Automatic annotation (TrEMBL):
Sequence ranges assigned to domain Rap-GAP in this UniProt record: 1-189
Gene: SIPA1L2_3
Keywords: GTPase activation
Protein name: Signal-induced proliferation-associated 1-like protein 2
PANTHER family in UniProt: RAP GTPASE-ACTIVATING PROTEIN, SIGNAL-INDUCED PROLIFERATION-ASSOCIATED 1-LIKE PROTEIN 2
SUPFAM superfamilies: Rap/Ran-GAP
Length: 325
């Protein structure tokens, strides 16, 4: 199969149904490890999309052919490392058996046999061969049914191929291979990118262990709550200059707004965007916040709690206020 130099009319007809031929050089979409710069893996390949998936096929007759090389390693390099393989059979072909294929990766074979190719009555029959530890997957293939050449058959076949690969990932053999691959990646990270860590290669699936250097205790950031995205509130007393009286309020400062809510009525009596604040002055027990064109609100702390005023200033200092030039 690897030594077929070119595709016959029946295969070309099937490929045209399955996807579109694309020029690899300069191809910017999913390329499945094919060379899109120097044509080292052929000049064209077969590409398509199905729902949210991109599919690039490794087509034997579109990959480079090497004369006098029975192994055809340039083709095996790609097809032999695929999980799902479509085997296309023309009329009169011998029955396919996966025993003829030796690969650590090919877990699912979808056999498509064409009937009456290149005629108005062309149709296809489908069968699946899978490794023992690959669970069954849909869509189910009706018994003794042939599929006419149509978009419905194309969608059925693409769904079968995608589901086959997803099912293979659940097999014990493939999961073990994936675990070993991840272990090698972790080992590479531990050995080459972490100076204080070692890995015990003698233990299967070993964990990264810390070196002898004692790990420094991470200290919590002092007053970290003052850097919160949400609002921080304080109980304050604000001066209502219109009525010449003091009003008990809750002051809230988030990273977007400053809000004053009257405690008794629960009404919002003041709000402005943080970007409209132009500055502030503070004393031991009070603070004035200036906004927009120079208007200000004056706030004082309850119960002689000067610590609240200090926290308000610290909160204001980390907010994205307007800069005066």
């Amino acid at each position: 199969m690897y030594n077929n130099e070119s595709a016959g009319p029946a295969l070309d007809e099937f490929l045209d149904l399955l996807g579109q031929r694309v020029r690899l050089k300069g191809f910017t979409k999913y390329r499945a490890q094919l060379d899109n710069k120097t044509d080292s893996t052929g000049t064209h390949s077969l590409y398509t999309t199905y729902k949210d998936y991109e599919l690039m096929f490794h087509v034997s007759t579109m990959l480079p052919y090497t004369p006098n090389n029975r192994q055809q390693l340039l083709r095996k390099r790609h097809i032999g490392n695929d999980i799902v393989t479509i085997v296309f059979q023309e009329p009169g072909a011998l029955p396919f058996t996966p025993k003829n294929i030796r690969s650590q990766f090919q877990h699912v074979f979808v056999i498509v046999r064409v009937h009456s190719p290149c005629t108005d009555n062309v149709c296809y029959s489908v069968a699946v061969s899978r490794s023992k530890d690959v669970p069954p997957f849909g869509p189910p293939i009706p018994k003794s049914v042939t599929f006419p050449k149509s978009a419905v058959f194309r969608d059925f076949l693409l769904a079968k191929v995608i589901n086959g690969e997803n099912a293979a990932h659940k097999s014990e053999k493939f999961r073990a291979m994936a675990t070993r691959t991840r272990q090698e990646y972790l080992k590479d990270l531990a050995e080459n990118f972490v100076s204080t860590a070692t890995i015990d290669s003698a233990v299967k699936f070993s964990f990264i262990t810390l070196g002898a250097k004692k790990k420094e205790k991470i200290k919590a950031r002092k007053e970290a709550h003052l850097f919160s995205v949400g609002a921080i509130t304080w109980s304050v007393c604000t001066r209502d200059f219109g009525q010449s009286m003091d009003v008990d309020c809750l002051l809230g400062i988030s990273n977007e707004f400053i809000v004053l809510i009257e405690e008794e009525s629960k009404n919002v009596v003041f709000n402005c965007s943080c970007r409209d604040v132009i500055g502030w002055t503070s004393g031991i027990m009070s603070i004035k916040i200036f906004y927009e064109r120079g208007e200000c609100i004056m706030l004082s702390a309850h119960d002689n709690c000067g610590e609240d005023i200090r926290e308000m200033v610290q909160r204001l200092e980390v907010m994205p206020f307007k800069t005066l030039l």
